[in-house]
Amino acid sequence: MSSDTSDLSRRGLLKKGAAAAAGAAAIAAGAAADAQGGQAPAVVTGRTFRAWVSRGTGPKRTTLQDVKLRPVTGRMVVVRTEATNLCYSNVGVVLGIQAAPPSGANAPANAAAVGGTLAGTDSMALIQGHGGIGVVEAVGPEVRRVQVGDRVCVSGTPQCGSCYHCLRGRADICQLLGRNLASDLIPVADLRDGTPVYSNSHIGGLSELMVTWEEWIVPVVSKASNVDLGMVCSCVSVAGLGATTSGTLATLAPGSAVAVVGCGPLGLSAVQGGRIGGASIIIGIDPIKARRDVALKVGATHVLDPNVEGDKLIERVRALTAGPTNRAWAGGRDSGGRRSGAGADLVVEAAGAEFVRPKLESGPDPSGILPMQQAYQMASAGGHVITTGLVRGTITLPAFLFAIGGVTHSGGQAGGANPMRDIPRFVEMLHAGRYDPKLLATRVVGLNDVLGAYEEVAYRTTITALMVM
Ligand SMILES: [Zn+2]
Ligand SMILES: [Zn+2]
Q1: Which residues surround ligand 2, an ion (CB under 5 A)?
Q2: pLDDT in tens, 383-412
Q3: 89 CA distance to ligand 1 centroid (A)?
Q4: Closest ligand to 419 CA?
Q5: Distance, C-alpha 280 to centroid of its chain
Q6: Which of 120, 154, 227, 397 is the most buried (most CB within 10 A)?
Q7: 170 CA distance to ligand 2 centroid (A)?
Q8: What is the Cα–Cα distance from 308 to 364, expressed in whole angstroms?
Q9: Ligand 2 geometric centre to CA of 77 (Å)
Q10: H helix intervals, 249-336
């Protein structure tokens, strides 16, 4: 045997064997760690952090408080907040203002539908917010989805993965979504006087730490800035991109026509989703000129002002989407002449009710009902409408159109986005430079300046606002 066969020598075999054994031990240790959810149980207790806590009624109900974290158990996840969106749907509960009640028969059955507090939570100390992004600081012993140090999105929509809705591909309406009434919430911290503190909708956000549960957590691997990642992972961006690119509720065929009714942060994300999905015509509709201007910058091919168009709005959309020919037997699009023009293949309604009267241009119907009715009527025969707005009242539609007009409506939550499947995809759209977060995040503030920024969101003088730590 020559010396160059040393790998067959006793010493060589021993060396290799030792390395193999070491490798096997490492694999075994890894498997054991995986079985435990990736790490030993992490418990951080008694830590104090600052949070915007609401309690009681009136305009001073939300105050910045020092709260003390409770023990981290079960599937709890503690996230050091990097950014959180100041969601318009929380304007009422944060600022303590009530929307003007709708009259008579239009009164909604549930306060949440108009942005009021959820039943029974008025007297509770609630950390406000609608999720955000951050870095995992601690996990309960049962957590498998993430590990300490992971960057994550705390999603506005949970995904348990085992309810009937999750199992049939509708994580946007996961059973846990509605489990946010007073009796569903679990205390995560305490005020100085011992009062238990809860996370709004199990997530919170307007605080140094988000204390939530595994079902609301989505791992996101990204080095994007807090503003950019915070914007694309916000509930509104996820809903807008979900409606147009998730395919859960409707499929957007490249080259087709999209109309977006309401160009707030959700609508402007839908406009971008339309562009990313390859729509050839994208019509942005909003009463606020500044928002129409941004719509044009992020992908709208046309913009319309509903106050200027008035009763002609639907006709205008149908004309803009008429297609290159209306000849019979040659690709004509109108519905047998009863309604001229074509209509959009996909309409995303993202207007919703005005919670307070905007300081910029107000829409034609502050209840949000008219824009929703118009959204339905501007869809093409065979087209699709996805509604996302929180409106007040009762919608009425032409019965003939509703019955046999061929329009499919999806009342999707979060635009049908499936958090674990879609949010990482939306983050890739950001990385690829296809999703523009900067034109939407027009106000960025620190923890101390949240209430002032919330007023700007309420009065619509900004497109949206982010709190960034
Ligand atoms: Zn939200
Ligand atoms: Zn579920």
Answers
A1: 160, 163, 166, 174-175
A2: 999 999 989 899 999 999 999 989 999 998
A3: 6
A4: 2
A5: 25
A6: 154
A7: 8
A8: 10
A9: 18
A10: 265-276, 289-298, 306-309, 313-320
pLDDT tens readout for residues 349-378: 999 998 888 899 899 999 999 999 999 999
Q: Is the dihedral of CA 284, 287, 291, 294 positive or negative?
A: positive
Helices marked H in 321-408 — which ranges? 369-377, 399-404
| Closest ligand by atom to 235 CA | 1
CB atoms within 10 A of CB 276: 18
Q: Which tokens is 130 given?
A: 């609608």
**Are 372 and 348 within 8 A, CB to CB?**
no
Question: What does the pLDDT read at residue 13?
Answer: 39
Q: Render pLDDT for 30-50 as a digit per residue (tens, 0 to 9).
A: 444 444 445 555 566 789 999
Q: Cα(157) to centroid of ligand 2, in Å?
A: 10
- Quote the ligand 2 centre to 31 CA distance (angstroms): 27
Shortest-distance ligand to the CA of residue 132? 1
Contacts of 115 (CB under 8 A, 6+ apart): 88, 89, 90, 91, 92, 93, 99, 353, 355, 390
Angle, vertex CA 119, rays to CA 113 and CA 123, nearest 5: 130
Q: What is the DSSP string of 15-53?
A: HHHHHHHHHHHHHHHHHHHHHTTSSS-----S-EEEEEE
> What contacts 164, CB < 8 A, 6 or more positions away?
175
Inform me whether the pLDDT recorded for 325 exceeds 90. no
Nearest to 233 by CA among 260, 203, 258: 203
By the 8 A CB rule, do 418 and 246 touch? Answer: yes
Residue 383 CA to residue 437 CA, distance in Å, equals 29
Residue 159 CA to residue 183 CA, distance in Å, equals 20
- The length of the chain is 469
CB 258 within 8 A of CB 230: no
d(CA 130, ligand 1 centre) in Å: 5
Q: Is the pLDDT of residue 458 over 80?
A: yes
Structure tokens at 116: 């009021």
